[in-house]
Every structure is written in structure tokens, then in C-alpha cells.
Amino acid sequence: MEKSKVLITGIAGLLGSHLAEHLVARGYQVFGIDNLSGGYLGNVPLGINFYSLDLTDRELLAEFFSVVKPDYVYHFAAYAAEGLSPFIRNFNYSNNLLCSVNVINECIKNEVKKVIFTSSMAVYGEGKPPFKETDQPKPCDPYGISKYAVEMDLAQACDQFGLNYAVVRPHNVVGIRQNIWDKYRNVIGIWIRRVLKGESILIFGDGKQKRAFSDIKFCLEPMEQ
Questions:
Q1: In 58-135, which ranges are continuous DSSP H helix?
Q2: What is the tens place of the pLDDT at every residue in 87-118?
Q3: CA distance 133 to 131
Q4: Segment 82-89 long-range contacts (CB within 8 Å, at least 24 positions apart)
Q5: DSSP letter string over 10-51?
């Protein structure tokens, strides 16, 4: 029996491309959307039905959903530049909140079985680590606000329309296909780019702070579940 149709937004990025590869190997029919603003076409694995589409285009997105009729949606598309977000407020909310609302609307209208949304540790703001899922979110920048707003919108869509959803907050995920050219996000990518240019890796504070990194390969099976 043919496995479910899966849609991944942001499929040309680190997480999207690896999950697509993982799901195709398990027999899923995978469709991918990306506007290639932060990902690369070369990242998209073979066997993917890829569409270059911007999630701000509601009409085109609606047409896509009506034709493809995905069973499950992994919404990974975002512009994750936390420190930059106060200076690009309109761009931040357009790409991280309004685009997500467009996806959620189509999931409701097309009776998607479940949407999986990648949020961020930024929803916790400047709390004291280690953070727990039971901590009260208190974002302190527009990026964190946009992510938390999507979480709340999903909860409302579940209450009113029965949309099944899950929120995951991957943190410091690293692996091949990571964008190393954006100077505002991905700490490992920033370090790699600076080393390639012969520059210091740039450490803030006294350098004694600790940070855990997650290999992308350990994120895939839990995402499938």
C-alpha cells in the first residue's frame, strides 16, 4: 500500500532536505516547497516533487494544496535571524508569522491529518537555562514573538477546527547542507565561514559558556513519529 503524501516547506534547507531524504527512503511520497531564499536547489534529494513557491502567495499556495492534497505537513520554512529581527520587523513577521498562517489555513481547508511546526528556543527569551517545555514562554525579540504566535495560532486552530499538530523546537542542529553564508544565523555556519576567510571564530563573553549541538541525523526518526 502506498504510504502517505508528505509536504515539507523549506525543503532546500538543512532540516527539510535531510528529513525529505529520510522519508523517501521509507517509501513516503514527498513534496517540497521552497523559495530558495536561504536554501539551495542542490540540497533537494532525488525522488522529491519540488516546487519553487513563496508562501506569501496565498492563491498559488491554495492551488498547490488543492492539487497535491498532502496528508501531513512539515512546516520548516522560516528566516531564523533572531538578533537581526528587531531591525527587519516587517520581513520577520511576513516570513515567519503570516506565511505560517497561510500554511495553517490550507491545512484546515484541506483536512490535513497533522501539521508539524518547527518553533524555536527563542520563545523562552532570556530565561535561565537549562530550559524545560513546561517553562512559560516569554520571547524578547520579534523572531521569538513570531514563533510563539504561530504556536498559539496552531493551538487555536486545533480547538476550533480540530487541526492536529505538533510543535518541535530543534536547537543548534548541525550537519552537511547547512547554509554557512548567512552572517546572521547558524553559529557553526558563522564559525566555518569566518575560518575559511582566515578570521577569528568570534566568541562572546569569557568563552566559558556551554552550548549543546545536535547532529541532524538524530532529529529525523523522532520527526517521523
A1: 58-68, 89-93, 99-109
A2: 999 999 999 999 999 999 999 999 999 999 99
A3: 7
A4: 82/120, 82/122, 82/141, 82/143, 82/144, 82/185, 83/141, 83/184, 84/184, 84/185, 85/141, 85/142, 85/143, 85/146, 86/141, 86/142, 89/142
A5: TTTSHHHHHHHHHHHHTT-EEEEEE--SSS-GGGSPTT-EEE
Q: What is the pTM of this model?
A: 0.89
Sign, CA dihedral 90-92-94-98, equals negative
Q: Find where cell 520587523 sits.
A: 89
- Select which of 143, 148, 165, 184 is catalytic: 143
What percent of the chain is predicted at pLDDT more than 70? 99
143 is catalytic: yes
